[in-house]
Specification:
This protein has ten helices and 13 strands. The chain has 334 residues and is of the alpha/beta class. It has a domain of 220 residues: Rossmann fold (3-Layer(aba) Sandwich). The strands form four sheets. It has a seven-stranded parallel beta sheet, with helices on both faces. A two-stranded parallel ribbon has the order 7-10. Helix 1 links the parallel strand 1 and strand 2.
Length: 334
């Protein structure tokens, strides 16, 4: 069996959840790439089934020197990137997030390979120009951090080259606040659910940032929280819908605030909510988003009809089936 699917960033939160979803559909013809270091990210791959694993830098060498060895690939899910919004090495982000994506997308398009890549909701910046995933206003967006800019730069590159508009073109996915199993390795970039779960075990309460804007009360800043199982289902749908091309928001379309999320976590643990509000660090105040919500009309127009799970149900599944027992996706099937 030769691999027909390539998943870059396959050991990450979304990448490993995607492989798990493909496994559930009977697909194991998957080539996985990532950068495995000294953290425990490899454990996300342990319960999964796939054809082979190649370290990301070695894969790029193969792409340049032995492209014929990848002739069986028909679909690429390019999810690999440095996703730390706090990363300050802009040069590294450009090389890793922009340059790598350009090389892989160009190679895929030359061969008629379906190419789906992770853009980011971080490209919308403060959101004042809206969060419409059409391409007409791309040039007006101003990301607030180097990570968002590195993603935005490729979106612009793809637009200039006509890759987002043509039939059979590429799909760029703007993930909103994805959370769920297989984020153990992400440290400070984990979702609030994962971090707050540990806070509750240690102190019995959760700390949330105060609002530093008069139009938002403490804890009522809102996000579009989307469960990773829903996010990957939408991603696979777009990959398997030939008429889908361009940029697509991936979220629930329903904003919820941090207090809602925290209460759902306490409920999943059968505990009474205890919340402490703390000052937001000054170095992130000017970059902090107070309201994000995915406009999913373009996704719906592709024929997507499956409702996303309610926030409370998603948090309950994550907490009770993964966080409490310390399991990864796929462990429950062993």
């Amino acid at each position: 069996m030769s691999p027909s699917i390539l998943v870059t960033g396959g050991a990450g939160l979304i990448g490993s959840a995607l492989i798990h979803a493909l496994n559930q559909r009977g697909r194991e013809d998957i080539l996985v790439t990532d950068v495995l270091g000294e953290d425990m990210k490899w454990k996300n791959l342990s319960p999964l089934r796939f054809h082979d694993y190649v370290q990301a830098d070695a894969f790029l060498d193969r792409l340049e020197c032995e492209p014929e060895s990848l002739d069986s690939i028909r679909t690429i899910y390019h999810l690999g990137a440095c996703s730390a919004t706090t990363e300050r090495d802009a040069g590294y982000l450009m090389e890793n997030n922009y340059g790598y994506t350009k090389a892989l997308a160009g190679w895929a398009l030359q061969r008629g390979i379906r190419f789906v890549y992770a853009s980011s909701a971080a490209t919308y910046g403060d959101g004042l120009k809206g969060m419409d995933d059409g391409t007409d206003h791309l040039d007006t967006l101003r990301p607030l951090n180097a990570y968002g800019y590195s993603k935005h730069l490729f979106d612009l590159h793809a637009k200039r080259n006509g890759w987002l508009r043509r039939e059979g073109g590429i799909v760029g996915i703007k993930y909103f606040n994805v959370f769920g199993p297989n984020e153990w390795h992400k440290g400070e970039m984990r979702s609030l659910v994962a971090k707050a779960y540990e806070q509750i075990l240690e102190t019995g309460k959760v700390r949330l940032f105060k609002s530093h804007r008069p139009d938002y009360r403490d804890g009522e800043q809102v996000r579009d929280f989307v469960y990773v199982k829903d996010a990957v289902a939408m991603t696979i749908h777009l990959a398997e819908t030939p008429s889908a091309h361009g940029l697509f928001n991936i979220g629930t379309g329903t904003p919820r605030n941090w207090i809602d999320l925290t209460k759902a976590l306490f409920t999943a643990l059968d505990r009474k909510p205890e919340i402490e509000f703390i000052d937001m660090p000054e170095h992130i105040r000017n970059q902090y988003q107070y309201h994000t919500c995915a406009d999913v009309s373009r996704l719906l127009a592709t024929g997507w009809t499956t409702p996303t799970r309610p926030l409370e149900e998603s948090v309950s599944d994550y907490v009770r089936n993964y966080l409490v027992p310390g399991k990864h996706l796929g462990d429950e099937e062993a």
